[in-house]
## 1
Amino acid sequence: MPSDRLAALLVFLICSKFCGIVHAGEPATLSPAKKALVGIVNERLESDWEAALKIWHFAEPGYQEQKSSQLLSKMLSDADFEIQEKVAGIPTAFITSMKIGEGKPVLAFLAEFDALPGLSQAAVPYRQKREGAQYGHACGHHLFGVASTSAAISLASYMKANEIPGTIKLYGCPAEEGGSAKAFMVRDGLFDDCDAVLHWHPSSMNSAGDRSTLARIAAKFRFHGKAAHAAGAPEQGRSALDAVELMNHASELMREHTPEGTRIHHVITSGGEAPNVVPEFAEVYYYIRHPESQIVKKLYQRLELCAQAGALATETKLEINFQGGIAEIFPNNTLARVTMQNLRLLNDLNYSEEQLQFALKIQGTLQKPQPITQLQEVIDKSGTVGKGSTDVGDVSWIVPTTGFTTACWVPGTPAHSWQAVACGGTTIAKQGMNLSTRVLAVSGLDLLITKGLIEKAQQEHLRRLGQREYESLLKPDQKPPLNYRKSPERN
């Protein structure tokens, strides 16, 4: 192990041993109502964790999450929620709701459950693929879905027992990783009756605040050429792979002339099968991002020109499989302050000796490990723009929305890594998930019982919008790309 990495680990160990792990939340400061609600949440902990582990093992890709979707919807139907299945033309998308009293206000929770390709991993602190699995929950959506579901069930149970009026809705949202499912759900008007929306996300830190994200457009560029013997008759071939390579080179040159904050990345998903055969089919999959949707639209038009140039130069046919686009998150400070306050109040994350040893081994594999004591912190992300993208953004332009993160991975662990998958199958993730469930539930209670709070959030939403209107980055007639995780079709 490099000396600097070893020195860093020694610092973390000393800090953890001698600085101590203090609870950031004091249960005594909770109101009686919140104490009771937290009690309901905690009674569900073991069954919640069992459900999360099942989804972690399912590890189903976007739009193919049949088992995961069914598990969550059954949890809700067993709790007497009404269910709408296969909404927005998506087999694994669903909406559940429970109305108490007059049914107003309408509070919604978001749940995700898709896994990522190429990140199969066992729950161990070293690289080891999980037998029989190609996908892995490297973004913690197995935790995301269960925590949101449990918070909805717990809050609805408390509302019924205490005759608090309102409607609790849980949106089962597939294919967040590139599939843009929520954008299609928004387009179908499925959020139009909501008064406020809460969500969260697993992370290596606890954070909340008035934060935005990057807008994103995804597309697959498919080139069709002519096969030929690469040595015997190369002049008769037209290489689809050459077209991909020319497009990629053009997009690399384009980077120099894009606005600050632009992100362009790609993978070649098909490039031929044998070097002595001129590839007649090749495909490259692109994401392009920026903090503003309108700029992303213009950047994508330029990216299409790069593709057309590749096709023109190689005499191949270009086919564009537009995957959809998602907007940046439209922040709401009123709601963000609620989740920030409750996250700080309830944060009691701590590592046992066993968890600490696991964490130190994971940190030995990280490029930028962070102190274990970061668990006690709650970072205010207000005013910042995250480097990721999420289809929560489309929801947030329609209805006041806020989210937060809890530390479900070892501090310093990047998302979309095998280390995140490994942590997600351990009790480190279990306690982070439980914290998020409690924060979601009590934040929902605040919104329901604090007079004028939701109205204040809605007024802020309208004030920030001003003359702007939500514009979807989907094409008007576009259907959900239900096969986007499957092998490229060779038309």
## 2
Amino acid sequence: MTEIKIIFLLAYDFELVKLSLPCVYTHADKILFSIDINRTSFAGNKYYFDENFINWIKEYDTESKITIYEDNFYQSNLTVMECETRQRQMSADYLGEGGWTIQLDVDEYFINFKSFVTFLETKSNYLIDPKNNRIAISSNWIVMYKQDENGFFMIKDSKFPLKIATNYPKYTIARNLHCKSIYTRSFMLHQSWARSIEEIETKVKNWSHASDVKNPAEYLEFYKSINIENYKSVIDFAPLKPKSIFKRLDYIPIKNANELIAYFEKIDPKESSFYIFRKNFIQWFLNVNILKTIYFKINNFLYWLTYDGKNK
């Protein structure tokens, strides 16, 4: 049996788990909620956490799949990104070896998680010797950028593949992995910036990219200015480089996140087959041993061709 293990990091936006957990609970075997024991963010700031929320998790966990893991994840000598990477690694180590480890954020709502798990089950050969057969499996984001009283502004026509599952959880930066990847057509809604202004202000001060937003106050003013009248004219507006990863905005007249999740579950707009084929072909090309051998032989040939004996 293929074991499915999911890790959520809980912090200031813990309430969003009420949306993300139901998307994956049924088809997970183990779920870990990882939270800093001192309620301190990656940036070293204390945040509000309703301790009664732990009771909600326990009440929801009717199948006894969930574990709460608390530790001192913030380290003052580390950058915010290093703190995040450290917490993700410690959480994966806490769950132990075996199966598929999936790292999700609380504001990521997996659409049709069952089909993603079914895909993982077809790749169970990677679980036999994971250390020598490392693999990452990706999903895609559809980013929710802003919400008004009548709907959501969504990032339009952008590609956001994310390595979220692996047979060998050794993380380099955040949840990124230095290994071969398999790209899938599955996707998640990412609530991201579609929050209240107060939540956005907390986000830009505490998330792992906090130091990468050069002028948060200026960006927040721009963010506040977007509305139903002007959103079509907004282009290349990501808060991080490159700006073009947020190209344009679309608008979906659905008033709350639960209904938006249901809408996307119904239409299930998977990534194009050609895009996924191209991504996977590149991965295959970079990992074929014979191609690596040819590359090194050409390099050796060029070395000896230009060798002049000075290095004897």
